[in-house]
Amino acid sequence: MALPILSKMFVSGVATGIGEADLRRHFQQFGKMADVHMPIDRLTGRHRGFAFVHFTRLEHLICVLAYRHTIDGHAVGTR
């Protein structure tokens, strides 16, 4: 069964040194996540500076959006 699209969040400003595990560690405090996707640049092999985090419940996403987030000293945007 597919998760509702409404529980998917866009994360911008993801610094080069931040990986999928860092995003999971930070956002899991708000609720269970189904997936974290960080698109990779084909030319450089590094992530492109943004990610998608998919929560299992809409309530978790709403909670995350109520705060500003800093991961490893870098501010990231959420929407």
From TrEMBL:
Pfam families in the record: RRM_1
Keywords noted in UniProt: RNA-binding
TM ranges: none
RNA-binding is among the record's keywords: yes
Matches recorded under SUPFAM superfamilies: RNA-binding domain, RBD
Alphabetized InterPro entries for the sequence: hnRNP, Nucleotide-bd_a/b_plait_sf, RBD_domain_sf, RRM_dom
Protein name (record): RRM domain-containing protein
